[in-house]
Amino acid sequence: SFLWLKMNVLVSVLGLSLVLVACATQSPYQAVLRHSRIRGSQQGPNVCAMQRLSDSNRKYFTNCKQWYHRKVCGKPTVISYECCPGYERIPGTRGCPAELPLVNIYNTLAVVGASTTQMYSERAKLKEEIEGPGSFTFFAPSNKAWAALPTEILDALVSNVNIELLNALHYHMVNRRLTSEELKHGSSFASMYLDFPVHIHHYSNGIVTVNCARLIKPDQRASNGIVHVVDRVITAISNNVNAIIDLDDNLERLRAAMAAAGLTSLLEGEGSYTVFAPTNEAFQKIPQETLNRILGDPVALRDLLNFHMLRHVQCSESIVSGSAMETLQGATLEVGCDGDQMTLNGKAIVTKRDQLGTNGVVHYVSELLIPDSAKVLLELAEGSSVTVATQLFVDAGLVSHLKGSEALTMLAPLDEAFKGESRSRSELRKLLRNHLVKGQLSSQALYHGQELETLGGLRLRVFVYRNNLCIENACIAAHDKTGRFATLFTVDKLLTPPTGTIMDVLKDDDRFR
Asked: What InterPro entries is this protein classified in (predicted)?
């Protein structure tokens, strides 16, 4: 019986190991599809739960987070139950018990929502090729994708049937069978149009794109290949990211800034980048004094431009919620969405999306994003919850320090620190001179017993406690903001610099006489 028990334990361990290996090797899309199957299983066999945005017809296989929040891109979703890829319903039975008949690609197009692609395939004389022998992958635009094409582009394709339309359709095809498992992130495959590559991105949330078009019905198998239905018509890519910027007059000011910062060669070379490209209008919105300062400072300019770039390709269709992404500058941007809008740091400032190049993608933005590292001290303060202190610093005649290149650290009390304050504004302005410390400091480098010299000539003591880091009686209340030359510490109280020994304090208080 002991041997029997050992064998059962061994079988259980091996079974668990196989499950873990299967989960580890499963692609993100397959993991999301599996979750959709689990959520749809109560409706019958081979049923997948789908989430549809209630104000549009965009549908997604559901992952765990989306299922519980019932939201995509911040908007409520409606749950629907549909046949999983490769299955169909039979009248009078539960679920989707029947496998779709395995027919050629041409006939498959009609049953997966790509009948317009089927029609154009016949018109372009592609029908015989995709009905015949072979092993193809067809990234087939949905009917809605064709309908969304601008009229002039569609007319240009259709009017020259034998060349342009055939070339366009061939660019949607690869001369081998590629399942979603084989569509690896960052891979590319030669298309059947002059071997121009199609670019694949397979994101961790299960979304797969080809040239930034989302696969909305992947893995529709056919006798001579496989069909992936996509949500837009894709076009051949020949320019790198720098060329996209170089060819658009609306990005003229960005182009000049990139050249001045020596970043042109970066976007001409190998790699994978996302560029949030500020338009000429975005540059014009910045105060001229600020813009001139940054453009005249090579370090600040480089930080500004690197803050608009990611070191990976982020297609807009891959985004279903906000996510912090590290920029080339080192700080993070929250890249998200609000309904149909792509957002940066919660703002819908992306005006043109998914301009794909050979080494990345460009999204146009209507606002310039200035990182803390390119800001002077006054700009850091104006972007924080220290409005009262900032105005008092200005009133105290300290603007030259706040706008200059002097290495300083500002100890800025929160607005709440001034509630109930009985001292006059003139007294407060004098006090705030001792809220500017010499040197650009980091709170992480402060140590217990350290003394800091203020512009007012006083020395302030640092106290390190288990859960607090304090300078005299004020404790640091937020993360540092590190600017071009200076740092901002937000503190919870107005500083009260020491005025004597403990005995002096007792002598000055009538209660202890």
From this structure: Adhesion/Biosynth-related (IPR050904), EMI_domain (IPR011489), FAS1_dom_sf (IPR036378), FAS1_domain (IPR000782)
Asked if 483 contacts 376 with a C-beta cutoff of 8 angstroms, the reply is yes
| Entry pTM | 0.88
> Residues 201, 207, 210, 212: is their CA dihedral positive or negative?
negative
For the ranges 24-28, 105-109, 256-260, 464-468, which has the lowest average pLDDT?
24-28
- Confirm if 172 and 136 have CB atoms less than 8 A apart: no
CB atoms < 10 A from the CB of 108, how many? Answer: 26
Q: Is 484 within 8 Å of 299 (Cβ atoms)?
A: yes
Burial 469-506 (b: 16+ CB within 10 A, else e): bbbbebbbbbebbbbbbbbbbbbbbbbebeeeeeeeee
Residue that wins the pLDDT comparison between 3 and 259? 259
Is residue 23 pLDDT above 70, yes or no?
no
Query: 326: which DSSP letter?
Result: E
Least confident span in 102-106, 292-296, 432-436:
432-436
* pLDDT at position 64: 84
- Residues 28 and 42: their CA atoms lie apart, in Å, by 23
Q: From CA 510, how far away is CA 462, in angstroms rounded?
A: 29
Tell me the two tokens of residue 455.
């512009």
Of the candidates 205, 217, 449, the residue with the CA atom closest to the CA atom of residue 315? 205
Which residue from 169, 238, 234, 158 is spatially nearest to 200, judged by alpha carbons? 234
Classify burial at 463, counting beta carbons within 10 Å of its beta carbon; exposed 0-12, middle 13-18, buried 19 or more: middle
Handedness of CA 159, 128, 183, 108 (dihedral sign): positive
* DSSP secondary structure letter of residue 297: -
Angle CA 180–188–265, to nearest 5: 140
The residue whose two tokens read 């030359």 is 485
Domains and CATH numbers, the chain: 28-99 (no CATH), 105-230 (2.30.180.10), 241-371 (2.30.180.10), 375-491 (2.30.180.10)
Max CA distance (Å), the chain: 107
CA distance 332 to 371: 9
Q: What is the pLDDT of residue 160?
A: 64
Could you give the percent of the chain with pLDDT greater than 70? 94
